[in-house]
Amino acid sequence: MSLFVFFAVLAAAAMHAVWNALVKVHLDRFLSITLMTAGMGAAALVTLPFVEVPKPEVWPYILASVVFHMGYRTFLIGAYKAGDFAQTYPLARGTAPLLAALGGIVVVAEMPAPLAIVGIVLLSAGTLVLSFRGGAHLEKLNLRAVGFALGTSIFIASYTLSDGSGARLAATASSYAAWLFVCDALWALVLCVVFRGLRALPVLARDWKAGIYTGVLSGGAYWIVMWAMTKAPIASVASLRETSILFAMMISVFALGEKMTAWRGAAVLSIVAGVVALRLG
Fold first, then answer.
1. Count of CB atoms within 10 A of residue 277's CB?
2. What does DSSP assign to residue 57?
3. Which end of the chain has the lower number of beta carbons within 10 A, N or C?
4. Worst-scoring range by mean pLDDT, 13-22, 108-117, 171-180, 240-249?
5. What distance lies between CA 135 and its chain's CA centroid?
6. 160 with 228: CB under 8 angstroms?
7. Of 53, 45, 12, 15, which Cα lies nearest the Cα of 186?
8. How far is CA 2 from CA 82, 124, 137, 168, 230, in A?
9. From CA 85, how far away is CA 152, in angstroms rounded?
């Protein structure tokens, strides 16, 4: 992984943490995620005249990713309802890089370098420590929450592998990302109408500014990740992306006044060590 790609992915991770920490809308989680996805699609829509239409062989990856993203959002909402956000979200994000690394070996025949494997493990371990010991108590993480969180991680790994492979096959990562975001937004709106009815659309429209804001940040962060996966191993990029958890923790400590516990300190050291190993690998 080149130094430019390395710092680009770190920037994407920071963007991911920032929009999660700063942007709040007064909607339930299903509508909030739908709003963000719609905003991402709206931002991507204006770029379509400037990017190539995907080749026929690229469309299966885009369609598969739309399905995987919908599964990810569904399980993430279930995890939010079943358990504490501070635990379920890091648990989902922490196990996803390990699954992506295993999937990369099987699906795209991409074996990470030994030092990169060490980095992936250290990053995942640090994220999981934040999940279990960084916030609420371990005993409050029930089996239902664990199931939804692990299901979320499977979908994260799935769309990561699909998008990494599709972006590599497409003319450019930008064309793949733009068409994916538009297709994902259209499908999310269709499902929103199916499950909530047409009355949900005016509700979304009232918070359209928040949708555009979150959509641009989220879409920009993930576009960087997809571009990076065309330049570096998928598993390494996927793992480095999860440093968003570290940025989110830093925001919670320095901006929100939360305490830096010993467990959080250990998690930070593990994540930083993982980042260094990925860079050297």
1. 22
2. T
3. C
4. 13-22
5. 21
6. no
7. 45
8. 40, 22, 39, 17, 12
9. 13
